[in-house]
């Protein structure tokens, strides 16, 4: 129960990796805040959290919107009085190519959720994280190191590369305040996003592209996120932890 009496906010926790992450934190004793723009999904996850006997708050939020992001942090502090861990996990993926000009179709949208949203949430949470000497974990992607993991989604990779850089900037700036900032960089994970990104490929074919011939499960990514946020990782900051079934070796 490493997170007893701690408060953890996870964005994009209405499904997939974010859902597995809030459930893992609740199992470890945390009270959790589910932030997602899909309120229906978020409420279903909240019901599962209650099985661990922990307090849970659902806040319907689009993390790319300043007012909504600010409200999410304010409601968290009003309800719990503290914030110990922020997981910037909300993300979207959209296709686009240079060759036909489609690269610009979703550029602003993808960057504003995957990158700006994480910077905005971290910025709003910083005073509370300094108070609790807390931690931030960003969900990046191994695509920043290996294009094999996702072809045809350049804006997504650009945003995640920016997120890796932000992780290092934030880790450096906040280190004197005792706040650690890290990222996890998954390869293919068995979630709605992986399936949607490979519309013409079935899930078993995605697994074939990795060295270990499998997709990661959301719970496996949650294990690493919880580790990075925990005291067991007290010397880890500014890192991006690859969890890619060896796809970057291919
Ligand atoms: P998912 O689609 O199951 O989960 C993403 C969640 O984010 C959804 O619940 C969605 O409603 C929410 N969301 C999207 N935009 C939002 C916004 N503007 N505001 C608030 N919530 C928003 O997919 P997932 O695979 O669990 O994705 C989680 C994270 O993992 C993403 O950042 C994604 O880029 C990253 N990732 C996924 C994979 C993969 O293969 N699935 C690989 C590497 C990285």
UniProtKB/TrEMBL annotation:
Recorded superkingdom: Eukaryota
Keywords linked to the UniProt accession: Oxidoreductase
Gene3D superfamilies reported for this sequence: NAD(P)-binding Rossmann-like Domain
InterPro entries cross-referenced by the UniProt entry: NAD(P)-bd_dom_sf, Sc_DH/Rdtase_CS, SDR_fam
Database matches in SUPFAM superfamilies: NAD(P)-binding Rossmann-fold domains
Molecular function as annotated in GO: oxidoreductase activity
Annotated protein name in UniProt: Uncharacterized protein
């Amino acid at each position: 129960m490493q997170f007893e009496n701690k408060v953890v906010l996870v964005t994009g926790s209405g499904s997939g990796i974010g859902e597995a992450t809030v459930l893992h934190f609740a199992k470890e004793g945390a009270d959790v805040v589910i932030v997602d723009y899909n309120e229906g999904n978020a409420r279903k996850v909240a019901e599962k959290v209650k099985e661990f006997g922990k307090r849970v708050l659902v806040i319907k939020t689009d993390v790319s919107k300043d007012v909504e992001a600010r409200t999410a942090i304010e409601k968290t502090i009003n309800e719990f009085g503290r914030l110990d861990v922020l997981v910037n996990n909300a993300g979207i993926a959209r296709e686009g190519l240079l060759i036909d000009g489609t690269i610009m179709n979703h550029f602003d949208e993808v960057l504003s959720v995957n990158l700006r949203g994480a910077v905005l949430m971290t910025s709003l949470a910083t005073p509370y994280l300094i108070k609790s000497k807390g931690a931030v974990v960003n969900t990046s992607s191994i695509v920043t190191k290996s294009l094999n993991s996702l072809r045809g989604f350049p804006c997504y990779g650009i945003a995640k590369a920016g997120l890796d850089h932000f992780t290092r900037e934030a880790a450096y700036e906040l280190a004197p305040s005792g706040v650690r900032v890290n990222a996890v960089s998954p390869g293919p994970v068995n979630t709605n996003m992986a399936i949607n990104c490979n519309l013409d490929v079935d899930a078993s074919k995605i697994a074939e592209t990795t060295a270990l011939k499998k997709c990661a499960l959301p719970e496996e990514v949650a294990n690493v996120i919880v580790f990075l946020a925990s005291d067991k990782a007290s010397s880890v900051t500014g890192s991006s932890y690859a969890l890619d079934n060896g796809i970057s070796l291919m």
